[in-house]
Task: structure prediction
Amino acid sequence: MRLRNVRWTFLLAAFCVSCVQAQNRDLLEIRITQGIEGALPIAIVPFDWRADVRPTVDVSAIITGDLRSSGRFAPMPAADLPARPGSFAEVNFKDWRLYGIDNLVIGEVKQIAEDRFSVEFRVIDVISTKQLAGFRIPTNAANLRLTAHHISDLIYEAVLKVKGAFATRIAYVTVSKPLKNRLYQLQIADSDGYNARTILESKEPLLSPSWSPSGDRLAYVSFEEQNSAIYVQNIRTGKREKIAFGRGINSSPAFSPDGRRLAMTRSREGNPDIYILDLTTRKQRRLTTHGAIDTEAQWTKDGRDIVFTSDRGGGPQIYRVAVEGGRPKRLTFNMGDYNSRASLSADGKSMAVVHGTNTGYRIAVVDLDSGNFNVLTSARLDESPSFAPNGAMIIYATMSKNGAELAAVSADGRVRQRLALQTGEVREPAWGPFRK
Amino acid sequence: MTVTRFRWVPVAMVVLFLAACGGSKSTKPIDTPRAGIEDRGISTDEMSEIDAGANSQGLGGEDTYSATVLGNPDDPNSPLSVRVIYFDLDSSNVRSDFSATIEAHAAYLAANSDVSIRLEGHADERGSREYNLALGERRALAVRKRLVLLGASAAQVRAVSYGEERPVSGGSDENSYALNRRVEITY
Result:
């Protein structure tokens, strides 16, 4: 079944500190630009709404959008559904099989108290006529959208046996378009682009947002003091702290998997090297000492090694070194003169990089066991790859004729989608961790 | 030795030059380092290293530099009026067509030890931002090194990098890239 092109537009209510009733009417658009053969046919029956208030969000429509955007599912359009069963007993399996549907989702939203809702749903395997999963989730009106993403995660896991990453967030930087008097905003949004909120605004460049493993803090680089400096900001309280500053470059922060340390790039001793900062004691240790550029540190998931970009061999390539020190080992071979900004998958088996050739800069995924690589994208200026926490998708920055926007590609390169602001540029995406 | 010679530059010319500077956007006070940022022990070693290099090669500037250049800062043909140094693709080598510019600025700094400048290194938009930030710094440091070799004091020259974050040309073509690969000198 072929995936249809979907096109949703919606309002982004961007939170603006300085304006009281400011509603930033940037339109964010998500579009699947490349579909796949072999997406699983699934039917999501619109959930019954049993409440004395009007629905604020369409739960089943959000689930449908999530599953479709993953590229792994081909949800049947609501208008084509042959029946709308409300319970397992009402399901006529023959009908669904006739329509080629493998899996069916039914459910309802019930109001329990004034602002308390209960969402129930079941995932049914049409072929075996068995229930794969069934859950009841308590929520409230404000969290209904998040609950819908959570349900998408559970459906994804019930059918594919892999955790879904729809109920996650992304951080990114937006830039107003004119070259002079630019305004930079650090924003956080749901993984589908909704609920965008600005957590920092600056007239000077912002870059390299990096999530803490628990999703409560963001480290980033700000030029607000006329040079690069690293800040760590608490997302809930907005409180932030200047972590590294002063002479030279202070950039490319990355939290350790336990959240206690920060890897970063500093050049105060002459040229850019990787440093490890203990966030509790504030003691820093220089990890690399080569006279070349060493930057863009990432932690391996076990916290033992740092993967980073270095041009010690001529052009930029990816290396790996033990956090305790030692001789770095090169990871990218036979893949050209330019490989940078690594992002590691959750299982540690693969690594997304910016892969430059004389025809452009693209996102490639490297299998770390074999060293084989696969170029996933085809634009001219793709950069900043960031793996989803379940390893299924990679979000990255790309350049279209409309300017800088975000895109996501499945780790196998088969499905791609775009995420664009219609005014201004979006860049530097960082996919957040699973919500606890 | 080089430094001594440039002390002879007439004071009036210096005043004239500073007046010329005042007209540009660099009216902002010269960026003084914030307390607690710069005065950590680490910087000293680096400076003395570069100063040592200056002693051995400083005479090179003396041969090519002409005092009349310093005397006409308003003159658009003066090397001192050039405040942007451009770089080749993937390179931090200071091109020979900017030698006169750098020599003029070095001489001016050598003659005016109370003046300091800021070098802003920039890269074009291709490739990853953090790596470009490092490339921008490499360019700024290359210019700084040349200035110090030619008689400026390391303490007078502060190098920062903006990587690809502050393009002067927004295009994604070779001409824009060539304009964006640069080091800007700010007094």
